[in-house]
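Bumping with the actual sequence this time:
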Amino acid sequence: MFISAARYFFFNQEQESTTITLNINMILIIFSHPYPHRSHANKTILDSIAKTEHVFITDLYQKYPDFHINVIEEQSLLRQAKLIIFQFPIYWYNVPALLKQWQEMVLSRQFLLGDGDHGCALQGKSAMAVVTAGHKHQSYQQGGEDNYNVEEFLRPLEQLSVHCGMHYHSPLILHQAHKASETELTQFSRLYSQRIEQLYQKNNNNDE
């Protein structure tokens, strides 16, 4: 399956798949939301960002409702990506459960360090988090309801990216996502698109 523009990918549970052929050096968005039908914000943002050139969206909860992750398939997607985006809601100051399991299963030592057929799989790629949070910005600070800013809760993801040899870029965060107006969602989506296009172009220029 060759994809020349942004697409959603939904895994067919009735078929075993081990390799997906896409645009090499694509922007891979790994979307992880256990209740996407409840999140108007994430749906609006995702629908908008899907129009961005080079983007490929993979929805983990749609693909793996039983948490049975196709590791080879996920690793194939990562190998073909230039820029990897993790989009998810903050759940109790952490990533959603399926994304955590994805990390533990897909990012194996052999995959990261390389073997006879492949080099270090993620070395030199770029990573970024795009996060929706339930509380207002002022709550995520010392003395606030959540005591730490969102970036602090994302430190494990940052360190994981660095450990995998990737360049980690500062996250995009939408606070009080459930209260965001259509104008705010449009502005955030535009910023999101601009940001990943800039990172994508920067990475391409560095390769020249």
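The tokens above came from a reply further down the thread. The helical segments are 40-49, 60-63, 71-80, 97-106, 109-113, 150-153, 155-163, 182-207.
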